[in-house]
Every structure is written in C-alpha cells, then in structure tokens.
Amino acid sequence: MGVFDFLKKKEIVLGAPAEGECVPLSQVQDPTFGEEILGKGIAVIPSVGTIYAPADGEISTVFPTGHAAAMTTPEGVEILIHVGLDTVNLGGKHFQVGIKEGDKVKKGDVLIQADIEGIKNEGYDIITPMVICNTQDFEAVEGITGIHVYPGEDCLKIRKE
Prior knowledge:
- The protein is mainly β and 161 residues long.
- Helix content is 9%, strand content 40%.
- It contains three helices and 14 strands.
- It has helices spanning 5-8, 31-34, 116-121, and strands spanning 10-15, 20-24, 41-46, 50-52, 57-62, 68-72, 78-82, 95-97, 104-105, 110-114, 128-132, 140-143, 147-149, 154-160.
- It has an eight-stranded antiparallel beta sheet, with no helix packed on it. The protein has a three-stranded antiparallel beta sheet with strand order 1-14-12.
- A hairpin with a 5-residue loop joins strand 5 (57-62) and strand 6 (68-72).
- The radius of gyration is 15 Å and the shape is globular.
C-alpha cells in the first residue's frame, strides 16, 4: 500500500436515527437483522420516538404502515431504518410518516414519529435496526456501539475503496 493510498479511501459516517442506546445488530431478536441477512449496521433502543435521517439522501421506500423507510445517500449507501420488530403487524397504528418516496432529505430531518410507549404497550420490541442493504459494495461497515446516542451523533462508519 502506497503512502497516499489512504487518501483514496473515503469514509462515510452515519448519524444515529434516534436518541437511545446504540447496540450491535447481534442484539436484535430477529434473525433477518440479528444475523445480518439484510446487511451490516447497528440498532438503537430508542428512548424517544422521533426517527431522523442519518445522512443526506433521497427516500427510496416508505412502507405504507409507517414502521420503516429506506433511503440512498449521494455516495450510494442504501440505508433501511426499521422501527421495532414485527411492527408491520400494527398496520400503521402508532406511526406518523412525514416523508414520501422521492423526497430529498438532509441529515437530521424527521422521517417518522413513533409512539414508542404505545408500541411497547402492544407487546412489541421497539429496538430499531439501521442496516446498510448494500453492505457488499463497501470495504467495511462498522458500528459505534455500547453508547447512548443523540440524533445525528456518529454511530456507523462505512469505508469505501
């Protein structure tokens, strides 16, 4: 590796999508996320139900039930944020979505409002995975976990060749 090869590498840092405890995906009690089937990432156990854009980008998918959204950054990072586990079964109850497909968002824009107490009272786990769906396109996807995060604080580093 040459002296200046490090200059060619680009690091993309994503912010936390919500306030709460940032944990490894392995703590998510759902194999689709916990076993990284959809890709690498982190999860936040939210203490507040406001979900924010972790980076600038374009909304690519908003689930009709409001429990999840996907976006793509200008660098091509495909991000899925999924609020809670099996929350699709709530049929939209406890979720308010302020975005639609094709919207351009800035890091820190509100994407989803979730009533986390209402979701918990219905018996659902509120852990919120944030997954890089195109993990294979990057050299490394590394979470910054074991910390309490506030929206926008660094929680996931992605290295591109």
